[in-house]
Amino acid sequence: MSGASFAPVPLQQDSDTVLLPERVADLTGLGELGVAGELVAAFIAAFFVGNLMLAMTGVAGPWAKRKITAAFTDRIAVNRIGPFGLFIIVADAVRLLSKELIIPENADRPAYDLAPIVVAGSAMLGFAVIPMGSGIQLADPEIGLAYVFAVSGIASVGLVMAGYSSSNKYSLLGGLRAVAQNIAYEIPLVVTGMSVVIFTGTLQLGGIVEAQTEPLITLGGFAIPAWYAFINPFAFGLFLVANFAEVGRNPFDTPEAPTEIVAGYQTEYSSVYFVLIYLGEFLHIFLGGAVIATLFLGGPAGPGPAALGIVWFLVKIWAVFLLTQWLRSALPRVRIDQMIEIGWKGMLVLSFANLVLTALIVGMIA
Amino acid sequence: MIGLLKSMATTMKHALDGNTFTVEYPETAPDVSPRFRGVHKFSQERCIWCRQCENVCPNDTIQIVTDDQRNGEQYNLHIGQCIYCRLCEEVCPVDAILLTQNFEFTADTKADFVYNKEQLKAVPWYKDIDPLESREPDRGAWIGEGEGAVDYQ
Amino acid sequence: MSTGLEPRRQVGVDVETTEEELEELIGDRALARDDHKNAPGFVIRPDEVQDVLFDLRDEAGFDHLSCLTAQEYADRYESIYHLKKYADPTQEVSIVVPTTSDEPTSQSAEPVFRTADWHEREAFDLVGIDYEGHPDPRRILLPETWQGHPLSLDYNQTKPQVVSLTEHANPIQPDQKGAESDTMFLNIGPHHPATHGVLHIKTVLDGETVADVEPDVGYLHRCEEQMCQSGTYRHQIMPYPDRWDYVSAGLLNEWAYARVAEDLADLEVPEYAQVIRTMGAELCRIASHMLALATFALDVYGDFTAIFQYGMRDREIVQDILEDLTGQRLMFNYFRLGGVAWDLPEPREEFFEKIRDLLDELPAKVAEYDDLLTGNEIFQVRCVDTGILEPEVAKQYGCTGPVARGSGIDYDLRRDDPYGYYENLEWDVVTEDGCDNYSRVLVRMQEVEQSAKIIEQCVDLLEDWPEDDREIQSNVPRTLKPEADTETYRAVEGAKGELGIYIRADGTDKPGRFKIRSPCFHNLSALPEMSEGEYIPDLIASLGSLDIVLGEVDR
Fold first, then answer.
1. Which residue, A121, C208, C219, C379, has most beta carbons within 10 Å?
2. Is the ipTM of this complex over 0.85?
3. One biological process GO term for this chain (chain B) (predicted)?
4. Sequence spans of domains, chain A
5. Does A285 touch chain C (CB under 8 A)?
6. Neighbours of C (≥3 Cβ pairs closer than 8 A)?
């Protein structure tokens, strides 16, 4: 550990990758207007990425989730409005937004109002550093991975705010469960993520993606890429499970647990606030999917020209989403105490074992 | 772990086989069986005003008013109260009452569910079926009361 | 509250108790005899209830308080304890406890049978008898502030009453608002995703642990007993049993009324009709167990997930068959006194074909449920060893049906107190010894298979039934007027357990007293025993595994 430098780490490392804000600045000529112009360009780029993600949740929430669940349960689902029932998204948006916003009498006001924004916002922040391929990446800081874990962790604050400020016992239980669960699974999640960092030697997400481009082995003309899911499937599995717990999906949906605590922290939310929390949840699933894709599935890598990167990236995110819905249809929810036990006694130990093992292997090879 | 995978495999099998068991109501209305008991249909032409249906009805859905010559004046049906037990159809000696296969009817208020005999004529409750045929009404159990005489009350 | 769970002395319970032995056992305490059609009845003094019941339970092995009927006569109140043996339910005895009209106070039987707790509360609530020494003498079905007792003779039926809302308080310690308190009072229901209807569970939590549970029932109370008392025996009562356990078990409920009324009026049922009844009832059992399975999965899995839908889908197939047979999907009204309303639908071959298809597909479906539910490790972790109901406790609470059989109590009225055509068919009573939520699920799943076995045999019989012998109803008088003061209590094995009905005839064409013994009522009363000390999710799972239908609990 000699020569540790305490000099401030530059947020943006000088690299060859051209980031989206720069590209926008170049294309529109805003770059020539100095700092103000770059700021506007960055804003436009962020607006684009943010809306892409929101559009995805818009498709996922009212439409895809229903369709997928219906397929698993042998039913016909939304199919009346528009082709494949897609316009239900519009109808649902209007319906949800025009509902009355009911605020409980004893709600702790600023906290109650802020919670949905914190939940949705924390996930949006995470997408800022994800390399989505086709040149879509807002920033590529050196501490990229740490940043993603940090901002997505803010969601727990939002959940506990929602839980206690709603002045509802079910909400409180849900909020407390959410915190207990997030703490228990955040550590295995980060530790497992670190095992990837041991391979790459960098926290920068662009660098992690780049490290996975080399082919691992070539089998009969097929080059299997050096995705960490193939190099270390054990870590991949651990990360998947920890991620499901982190975003509170089945079988770890204890913070919401309908049938037990009604809807957990979101019990009292209605109308716009409900939409925000709901969007926030989907954004977190997608962010989880994005992190999984980046760390283990080679990010935007895929056959075809590099311009198709964003497509492959979205396919990977949606595959993770599909997996959450599949698990939802097939697996029972674990009890909260079992859930904590799995987290602290199982996942934590396994993730450290994985870390040590990876370190040993990397140490021996290098 | 094997159990979990089996569970997941089972649901995925259902997702992929593409079968659905729900129908697109109302475009494809589910078929009801010939014996189905839906909305009450009253035939004034057949009715002999014996009032047996009014007596047998467990919850006063049917109200009949007759004059002192026992001629029928009113036949009122509170369809919102009907429990579709079919006892009125079963008791009717002249098949003046049939429960049709129609189960779709709505009203805005409870009071709208009350029909008098004129309104009962106008209600298009029959589909193209003849419930009588499907039911082959057997009134043996009703009319033959033990060894004694037939009791029409 | 005395525990009294362990019998004071163990005697061979299988030994049959003759009437002479009963007379000897009760001895001088019997003031008179008041025999019912189903059982010998002994009239005893109101202050000797515990004494006599303890003797009957411990010396003679009457360990099952099947029902408690309370009623008011012009000159007295009366509580009737209908006792049975779990080992042999055909051995019955009725203990009749009259009390005076001006001071209707009787000793509580709660120390002897825990299930008397709820029953005596109901008797107090609806009829107005006070039980001395009762641990919790409150109303149970009606609101606390209700005036009068609806089934008493001087009650004004037409006077409306306003019920005020009061906040529920934490029964263990002052509410959570104090800094010292470390428990939290939580209302689960009356509107909650897991209560399967309008049930209110007053829960006190210590963290996530359930410290105290009290089911609060009565939200769906429709005075079904009184409705039956105002209908004629012959026709008007039969539509109502469908509406007690309304989810699918209609024919099983109808059979409860059919059995008791046929017993009361000495009616014969043609054998052909009995076979149809048996087949219909078992179809209902399949439908009901499918729904129980589906909703239990809902409680454990969380969302309206696959198993719930598959369960509904399979129940739908059964309901289609029942619709063909009876003309309705839920409210069948198919049984008649002395038989059934209709013969099998024509063309019969098509109908049989439908049933055979169902039976052929059933094993594959059960295997699928095994894959999805019972084989799933998370499901096992959730259900094994949670919601423990020991057999002795279950008996104390009068639990029956799959709940009792999941606790290893080998008790099934279809076999032990045969009716219908069950005696002549080959099938087994399913029991599991786990006493937990998992066992109760297993019992239901296996009972579906057993029901299929029964149906198959019924179809075989019906197919070959000679055409000229297809009598569906015996000759029953149009107006039934059983002799005044004939009393009987009969039970059948409903979907949820022992569904019993007590009828006292008063010489008119309507019952003088009609009392329903609801299995769900008993099973639900055991919920605190199962869930205290466990976690909230276990409480929800235990509630689901009891498979209650509030329509039957509250009547």
1. C379
2. no
3. aerobic respiration
4. 17-83, 99-365
5. no
6. A, B
